[in-house]
Specification:
The structure is a single chain. The protein starts with 18 loop residues before the first strand and ends with a helix. It is globular and about 65 Å long. The relative contact order is 0.12. It has 374 residues and is an alpha+beta fold. A hairpin with a 2-residue loop joins strand 5 and strand 6. The strands form 3 sheets. A 5-stranded mixed β-sheet has the order 5-6-1-7-8. Helix 10 runs antiparallel to helix 11 and helix 12 packs across helix 13.
Length: 374
C-alpha cells in the first residue's frame, strides 16, 4: 500500500450545504421511561423476551452493561439480569416520531428520515427566520424537549456524513458543530471504524496496512486504496477528506432492508443456516419498524446474498405466493434459496446477507391477495 507523507487537502468540496442530523436519545426506551415513571433510572430493554427475540432499544442505564440494539435478547438478559424488559409499542413510537417531524417541518421541507428516531435536514435555505444552522438545531432540540418531554442530540455540518458523526459526539442531549474550515482537523484523530461501512473485518484489514485513524487513511494514495478495496477504497479516501456530496432526499421510499455478516473464518454453504436465522430476525425487526414509518408498506421478496472466499458476490431472490409473515418464515425462505446456488460443494463463503425487497402498499397487497383467494 502506497502511503505518502500527509499533505494539506482542501476537503469538503462544493456544493457546501448546511446539514443538521437529529438523533433521538435511546428513543424507544426513552418513550417507555417517559410514559411509565416506575421505569425511570432503571435499565430498560425494549424487546420481547424469548430465544428468537432481538433488542429493539436499550436505555442508557442498560447500555452501561453492554446492552445495545440488534443484540439477541437472551444475551442482553445475561449481561444485565436486573434489566426491565418491555415489549415494543411501535404505534406509540410512530406517533411521537410524527410529532418530531412536525417540528422539523417548521424549519425546512428538506427532511430525509432514516428511521423513526433520526433524520437529516437541509437548512441551507430555511423556512424560519433563524440566522444559522446551529440556531435551528438548538431550536429543534428545545421544541422536542418542550413538546414531547424527550431529548435529542444533533450534529451540524456542511454535509450528511459529517453531521451524522457530529450528532454522536455529545450524546445524550447534546449538540456538536463541525464548520467547513474545521472538518479536516475534526476527522483526523478519529478511529477508522467511525467511517460508514468500516466494520470489524475492514478495520482489521486497514490495521494490517498500518491504518488506524482517519489521518492515516488520508495519507494513503487514493489509487492504491481503490486498487486494494475497489470503489469503496476510493470512497474511504473521499470520506477521510470530509467529502460527501449526497443531497438530503425527502421521503425516499425503501427499496430493500437487509442485514449481513462477514465471518471470521470462511464457511461451507451447509453451515450457514444459524447465521441466516440470526440475520433474518434482525432484518425482520427492521422491516417491522420501517413498515410503520412508511405508512404500511410491506416487502414481498426475499433476498439471499453470499460472498465467496474469492470475493465473488451472488444474490438469489424469490417472491413467494404469500409474503413472509414472520422472522421464522423469512429465515426458512432464505435458507431454501441456498438450493439455487450451483457452485461446487467445496466453495467457502466469507459473507451472508438476508434481505427483504419488492415493497408494496399493505392495503394493495391484501386486496390482491383477497381477489385471488380460493
Amino acid at each position: 500500500m502506497e502511503c505518502a507523507v500527509p499533505r494539506r487537502h482542501a476537503g469538503v468540496t462544493a456544493p457546501l450545504r448546511k446539514i443538521v442530523h437529529v438523533d433521538m436519545d435511546a428513543f424507544y426506551a426513552s418513550v417507555e421511561q417517559r410514559d411509565d415513571a416506575s421505569l425511570r433510572g432503571k435499565p430498560v430493554v425494549v424487546a420481547w423476551k424469548g430465544a428468537r427475540s432481538v433488542v429493539c432499544a436499550a436505555s442508557y442505564e442498560a447500555r452501561r452493561f453492554g446492552v445495545h440494539s440488534a443484540m439477541p435478547a437472551l444475551r442482553a438478559e445475561r449481561l444485565c439480569p436486573q434489566a426491565v424488559f418491555v415489549p415494543p409499542d411501535f404505534v406509540r413510537y410512530k406517533a411521537v416520531s410524527r410529532q418530531v417531524r412536525e417540528i422539523f417541518a417548521r424549519h425546512t421541507e428538506l427532511v430525509e428520515p432514516l428511521s423513526l428516531d433520526e433524520a437529516y435536514l437541509d437548512v441551507s435555505e430555511p423556512k424560519s427566520a433563524l440566522a444559522s444552522a446551529t440556531a435551528i438545531a438548538e431550536a429543534i432540540r428545545a421544541a422536542i424537549r418542550a413538546e414531547t418531554r424527550l431529548t435529542a442530540s444533533a450534529g451540524v455540518a456542511p454535509n450528511k456524513f459529517l453531521a451524522k458523526i457530529a450528532s454522536d459526539f455529545r450524546k445524550p442531549d447534546g449538540l456538536f458543530v463541525v464548520r467547513p474550515q474545521d472538518a479536516l482537523d475534526f476527522l483526523a484523530p478519529l478511529p477508522v471504524e467511525r467511517l460508514p461501512g468500516v466494520g470489524k473485518v475492514m478495520q482489521r484489514k486497514l490495521a494490517e496496512l498500518g491504518i488506524e485513524t482517519v489521518a492515516d487513511l488520508r495519507a494513503c494514495d487514493a489509487v492504491a486504496l481503490e486498487r486494494r478495496f475497489g470503489r469503496y477504497g476510493r470512497r474511504l479516501h473521499e470520506l477521510s477528506l470530509g467529502i460527501d456530496e449526497r443531497p438530503v432526499t425527502p421521503d425516499r421510499p425503501t427499496l430493500q432492508i437487509s442485514s449481513e455478516d462477514t465471518f471470521e473464518h470462511d464457511l461451507a454453504l451447509a453451515e450457514l443456516a444459524p447465521h441466516i436465522q440470526r440475520l433474518a430476525e434482525k432484518t425482520w425487526a427492521a422491516h417491522q419498524r420501517e413498515s410503520l414509518h412508511e405508512h404500511g408498506r410491506v416487502a414481498r421478496s426475499v433476498v439471499l446474498k453470499l460472498k465467496t472466499s474469492d470475493f465473488r458476490i451472488l444474490t438469489r431472490t424469490l417472491t413467494p405466493r404469500e409474503r413472509p409473515a414472520s422472522a421464522q418464515e423469512l429465515a426458512e425462505v432464505a435458507c431454501a434459496l441456498r438450493a439455487r446456488v450451483s457452485l461446487p460443494p467445496s466453495t467457502r463463503y466469507r459473507l451472508v446477507g438476508v434481505g427483504l425487497a419488492g415493497f408494496v402498499n399493505r392495503d394493495s397487497y391484501e386486496a390482491q391477495a383477497a381477489l385471488f383467494a380460493d
